[in-house]
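subagent[fold] <- orchestrator: predict structure for attached chain, return tokens only, no commentary.
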Amino acid sequence: MGKVRQNASQGGKSNKVMQFLRKYATITFAKSLLFEPSRLPVVTWAILLAELLLNVAVVLRVPYTEIDWVAYMQECEGFLNGTLNYAMLRGDTGPLVYPAGFVYIYSVLYFLTNYGKNIQLAQYIFIGIYLMQMFLVLRIYSKSQKVPPYVLLITTFTSYRIHSIYVLRLFNDPAAIIFLYAALNCFLDNKWNLGSIFLSLGVSVKMNILLFAPAILLFYITNLGYVKTMLQLAICAGVQLLLGAPFLLTYPLEYIKGSFDLGRVFEHKWTVNYRFLSEEVFISRNFHIGLLLGHAIFLLVLSRPAFRYFQNYCRLRQLQLQLMPKNAEVDSQKRQKQRRRKQVQAGSQENEEKLSPDQEKFLSAFEKGLKMNSTGPPPVVEEPSEEKYSIHFDRCTQLAILPIFLCNFIGIVFSRSLHYQFYVWYFHSLPYLVWCTDFRTSVKFLLLAVIEFTWNTYPSTNFSSLLLHMCHVAILSGISRKLLTKH
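subagent[fold] -> orchestrator:
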């Protein structure tokens, strides 16, 4: 009888191993990891591990290039020495032009890196920032189930410029963008207050986060109504007042003018997107007003379909809340079935232990007969799988993310000037935006590849900047045509 139990135990383990191999050690499963968006949560951990190794290799093998880090440290050093007048906080690259959140974050980095001298430690810190941001980005993509994993694998690992911005340049743009993606994750999880705090923290590092503001304001109104929207705006304003308090209470005009200067004109020599314009046209006021008008017109035209997307998202989330008790009941029934099955199995084991001597003799003789007559392994009997009932409500994330990403993208298209570090403002949303068009897959990859080429062309040329605009216009027209024809 003991041999029967042992053989049964070994057979059970063997069956489980074979079932595991048949399910996962197959070409079909490997293909699903690459092509099925639902598999992205599994692929995420492989991406993060590979990114960790890649970024460490970049830090160890590629020389660091100084651009703004020393200036950041000088600006924060002035603050740490007691200077609260923004007009007097300067570095090698000019005056301090970022809000108070930037000052606090880089002041912490100032102390952690031995007054800014330990560059390699700063690079490892930025690797951590990069990995946290990638996790937040991939979490959104996993929820939406819109983009196949192989697309994210290709775009993530082939972008030299993005890895350079994070670990070889130490710009402040990544510090702002990580707060933005933290805020979006909170909004999708219905953690509105925390999301508003993160959003305002991002603005406190760099004002480019305001490019998302029109869509997020509409998102607030659709989901929360006007009264609760005012509460979220009050939270955002409160964070800004709290962070800026030391400067606002001493030199308020200098702080507001220095950190929120919307009229600042960039130098033509650093532009990535308008190299083909003469410097005279580039710095002209009429050019800037024209871009602002174009920006506003596109936001207004696409606000109606964006509002409908948000409305549908809100309705689906409400339906999810209504069905939660029913889903909980189904889960409870499944757990009860599993408990009953275990009880039956336990009861059968007890019955086996209480076999009579005659029954044990019969089983022993039956086992010998099996050994003599068997010509192969016993057949594997699989239990019928339970029917699964599931509704993927997280896929309605697509209705929220597209308008928010598109709002930022419109701001990028009509930006007065893009510098190389600004690539992080929209890089991680590009695969999503491109996959929201009706272009063929080859065209989608071509657009992503050409955009990457233009951002890696240094210094920018007339040709590269024109190419960048052509790609931007193609993506914007593709999404707009899809949105406007449906609505």
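orchestrator: received. Logging for downstream: The beta strands are 90-91, 94-95. The CA atoms of residues 305 and 483 lie 6 Å apart.
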